[in-house]
Amino acid sequence: MQTIRNTLVVMDAQQPDSLLLDRATLIASATSSHLHLLACNKKNHSSSDLQATEDSLRQKGFSVSSQQAWKDSLHKTIIAVQQEQECGLVIKQHLPDNPLLKTFLPSEDWKLLRFCPCPVLIVKSTESWQGGVILAAIDAGNSDVNHRVLHAGIVGHGYDIAQMIGGTLHIMSAHPCAELLSADPVYHLRESIHAMYLEHCRALQAEY
What we know:
two-stranded parallel ribbon; single chain; Rossmann fold
């Protein structure tokens, strides 16, 4: 996380921005990251509000810029700007799910988490991070090169955030049910699977 030099902050005129900006400025203060504010609008409805937020952050000593953009959908707009601005982190406030649609269609937040090529922080709670526990969830059952790189990134970012807030990093991995791995569960005892996954988690823990 210390290598992130440009952070994309997705603004939403329909939601209060204090929660979002609290997280963004906390990270920017710790990493000296530039903040790029993005309003995903088809029309220039919130240009004055966006400029006011930019001016306020600049007065507080932050490096900041802003823009409005729209490209087909919310998640596509965010990813396009993230690529254009070479942002190493995207921060966005959670959008409440539509209970009628979420069963059939993935939400924009889900699509952003799935397709964005850089880390994404979805802000939902007002609870303070200070002294808290950061959960790093990995897939310890896969140890190929791509997964090792991904695991290192997840644990590394988690470790940096834990240091930032004076908290603790907790690593976890879910393992598959023994009965699903073999027709004969004798060869895949639950205890053996658990021990293998735990060993992989502890190896990552030892690096930090």
